[in-house]
TrEMBL record, chain A:
This is WD repeat domain 73. GO terms for biological process: cytoplasmic microtubule organization. It comes from the Eukaryota. One of its GO terms (cellular component) is cytosol. It comes from Poecilia reticulata (Guppy). Coiled coil: none annotated.
TrEMBL record, chain B:
Its main location: cytoplasm. Keywords: Cytoplasm, Hydrolase, Metal-binding, Nucleus, Zinc. Its cofactor is Zn(2+). It is found in: Cytoplasm; Nucleus. One of its GO terms (biological process) is snRNA processing. This is Integrator complex subunit 11. It comes from the Eukaryota. It comes from Poecilia reticulata (Guppy). GO terms for cellular component: cytoplasm; nucleus. Residues 16-229 form the Metallo-beta-lactamase domain. It holds the Pfam family Beta-Casp.
Amino acid sequence: MMGETEAVEIDDILDDWFIESLKSYKDLHVYQLEHPTQIIEWTSGKTVCVAGYSSGKNEILELRLPLRLLADEKKGLCAERDFKVVHGGFSEGPVCCLRHIPGTRCAVTNDGLTSDLQLWDLGADDTDVIRKTGSLPGTSVSQAGSRITARLSSPPQVLHGAQSSGVQLTQLSTGQTLYRLEVDSTKPLSSLKFASPPPGECALWWTDASAASQCRVIMLSSSGQAVVSDLRNLGGALCQAQLDVQTSPRKPEDVTVAWAPALDGCFSVSGLSGLVQIYDTARWRAELQDASPLFQHAGHSVSSQHGDGSAPIFITTHVWHPERPRTLLSAASDGSVHVWDWVDPQTN
Amino acid sequence: MPEIKVTPLGAGQDVGRSCILVSIGGKNIMLDCGMHMGYNDDRRFPDFSYITQNGRLTDFLDCVIISHFHLDHCGALPYMSEMVGYDGPIYMTHPTKAICPILLEDFRKITVDKKGETNFFTSQMIKDCMKKVIPLNLHQTVQVDDELEIKAYYAGHVLGAAMVHIKVGSESVVYTGDYNMTPDRHLGAAWIDKCRPDILISESTYATTIRDSKRCRERDFLKKVHESIERGGKVLIPVFALGRAQELCILLETFWERMNLKAPIYFSTGLTEKANHYYKLFITWTNQKIRKTFVQRNMFEFKHIKAFDRSYADNPGPMVVFATPGMLHAGQSLQIFKKWAGNDKNMVIMPGYCVQGTIGHKILNGQRKLEMEGRSTLDVKLQVEYMSFSAHADAKGIMQLIRMAEPRNMLLVHGEAAKMEFLKGKIEQEFSIDCYMPANGETVALTTNPSVPVDISLNLLKREMTLGGPLPDPKKPRTMHGTLIMKENSLKLVSSEQALKELGLNEHQLRFTCRVQLQDPHSDSDTLHRIYTHLKSVLKDYTIQHLPDGTVMVESIVIKVSSSAEDANAKVLLLSWSYQDEDLGSYLSSLLKKGLPT
C-alpha cells in the first residue's frame, strides 16, 4: 500500500496562473510551513525568522533562503531550492511581533496579548537552538500586544509599545527605560517606526517611513486610500491615489505596507485584497485618482491548501529583500511562505 | 537488559555513504552499502574493519539489506561481497535488483575506463554479487532464519525504494533509507503501519530543510525549456531511463499542447529500449491509480514526442531531446552534447547527480573547456542547468513518519549532533521519545524493554490466592513459587507438582541433618526446653513448637537433644531440615552453635 497520491493529472497544474508565472516571475519558490506565521523578519541578507501564533507552544525558526535564489551568475549550476532551518526554538505563547536587533544575534518578541517583551539569542554557528534569554516588562495595561522596532545602535536599544502612551525606548542589556513618549492617547498602534505616527482620524491608518533617505512617508487607510507625504510636513500630500482593493481588514495587524528598499517610488501592500500588490507612485498626482497595481502576487490564493473555500486564506505579512530590487517574501494564514522575484511588466 | 546496537559505518561527519550496522537479538544486519562519491581512495568505501579486522564478513553478518539503487546506498556492495568477502543473503526489492547491476556497471566503467583506477570491482564481481540477492515483495514477511524476519514497505523516492522492518523476537527496528512523504507524479508517498518499532532509523540530511514545492520545480523546468526554444535554441535532457524521464515527457507534452508549441521533442532510441524493459517492472510496483493515469500512457504514443534519429541533431531550429545516458559519460547523449555545446542559444538540463569523471560532473562544476579524446578541446558555450527533481522528506516529513510508525526511540544518522539539537528537542517534545544522533563510527546501544508474555496455570493462581496476603501490585511485587516451562514458543508458569507431572519426573525429597555440640549440664529435656524458650524469643515471626515426642520444631525443622557419649556435660543437638528450609536450617545451626543464654 502506498500513501495518498494526489491527482496525477498534470493538466491540473498547468492552470492560467501557472502559465502566466513563467513570464511574470524570474524566480518563484513555494513552501509549506507546519504552522502559519505572522512575521517574516530579516536577520541577515540571507536569513529570515518566522514564528507560529497559535495559543499554545510555538516554534521560532530562522530560515536560510534557497541557494539557487541567491546564486546570481552561477544560478544554473545550483540545484538547491529549499529553505534550510539554521536555527530553531520554542516559545511558550504566540509570537505576534518579532524584531531582530541589528548588529547582534538578539531578537525581541511580543505575544500580542500583553505589552511584555521576550528576549532571545538566535544562536551562533556552533548550535542550532534559539534560546530565551530574558524578558522586559511593558507599561501598558491594555490587552493588546506591543509593536517593536529597533535600529543599529550601541548599546542595543528597542522601541516598543502597545499604545501611544506606552511607547518607551529600552536599553536591552540593562532593561533600563531611556525615554518614554509623553502622549495622551490610548489609540492602538498598528506599526511603529522611528518616525512620529500620523494624525489619526476615524479610519485606521498604516504607515511606512523607511524611505527616510527621501524623507517620504506613505500612509494607507483601511478603505485603500494611499497618501505620500514629506516627513517634515505630514499634513500635506505630495501625491495620493485610491488603490484597487476589495476587502476590509479584520484586524490592524493584517495589513502590511512597505516601501521597496531598492526600487524608487515603489511600495507594496498586503491584507486589503488577498494578494500582495505593488504600486509605482512615479505617475501619481496630488489629486486623488485611481491607481492600478504594477504587479500582483496571487500565488497564495491560487495554490491554497484550503481548496474547499471554507475559510478564505489571507496574507499575514510580507517583506522586501533589503538589497535585491524585486525579491519579496510573503506568508499566508494556511502556513504557506512564498519567495518571489517578479518581472517588471513595463520592461517587456 | 536486552540491547539493540546501531553503528553508522565510516569516519567523520561525511554524508554521502550509507552503511549502517544493527545488532538486534543476537543478529547482525547491514543496512545499505553505499559508496562515497566524493573520494577517490579507500575512504569512499565504508569501514568494514568495525565488523572484523581480517577476513570475510560471512560469519559476522546474518544478512545485508539494500534500500534502493542509488549509488550512495549500493555502490560499495560488489566491493563488500566480492573483494572483502560475504556469501550470505542480500535482500532488496525486485526493481532494485533489476536496476542496481546496470548502475553499478556504468559506475564501474566510468571509474575504471575513464579515470583509470585499478582497485575497483569488476563486471564479473557485479554478476557474482547479484547472484546472492534474494528479492523482496512489499509487505511480505521474509524469514531470514528461524529468529530473524524482515518486511519491506513502500518508500516513494525512486522506483523500488523500500523502508525495511526488522524483527527478532519482540524487538524491532525500522530503517527508512531515502523516502518522501508527499506524493510524486509517478511515485506515491511512503507508508508504514503503526508497527511501534523499538527504533526508527532515518537520515538527518533533509531533516533541517523545508522543501520547495514540486510545482515550482516544474515551473522552472518549463520556463527554461520555453526560453531556449523561443530563442531558437536546442535543449538536451540526459536521463537514465524510466520514472523521472517519463514524468518530464508527460509534463512537456501537456505544456506543448497548452501553449500550442511547434518545436519537435524527441526521445532517443537507447531510451526506448531500456524503457520497455522497466515498463513491466514498473507496472507491478505502482498502485491502481498511478497505473491508470500514468503508466498506461504508453510513452511511444505521445502526440508531440517522437523517436529520435541521430541525423536530427544537425537539423536547424529549436528542439528538445531526451537521451541516455544520464551523466553524459558515453553514448548518444554525449554525441548530441558535443554537437550542441558550442552554441550559447542551446541548453543542457541535468536532472540528477553525476558521478565524478563524467562530463556531466565537470560541467556541473562550472567547467567551460573540456578535454575530449584525441586531445581536442570542447568549448562549452551552451547554458548548463542543474535541476533536482528527486523526492525527499523534509523536517515536516520526518514528523509525519514518526507519527505513522510510533517508534519508541528515534535515531538520526549522518548529521552533526550540535547542528540538530533543535530537531532532537522537537521530536522529544512532541512524541516524548528519545532521539539519538550517533556520529559515523560511533555506536548507540539502546536498552529495550521487551514484554515477555507468560501464561500462568489456573491452579497455581488459585493456590496463590488462598495463601492470602496482599494482592499483587506492580509497585510491590510478591514472591511466588512455581516452575517456568519453555516449550516451543510459549512460556508458562505452573506449580512444581504439575511441572513434575508434565515432565514425567519423580519428586525427590532432600533432607539435611546437622549435629551441633553444646556444653550444657542440664538434663536432655531441660536443655530442649531451654532451646525452645531461646528460639521463641529470637525467632518471633516463626512457628515454634515444643512437641510431646521430645522435639522442637521450627517451621518444618526438627531439633532433637541427646547426651554426648564422651562428655557428660555436653549435649548433641540433631537438626534436620528439608531442602526448602535450607536458609532457616543453616541459620538455626549457626545460632545454636553460639550456645544458649544462661
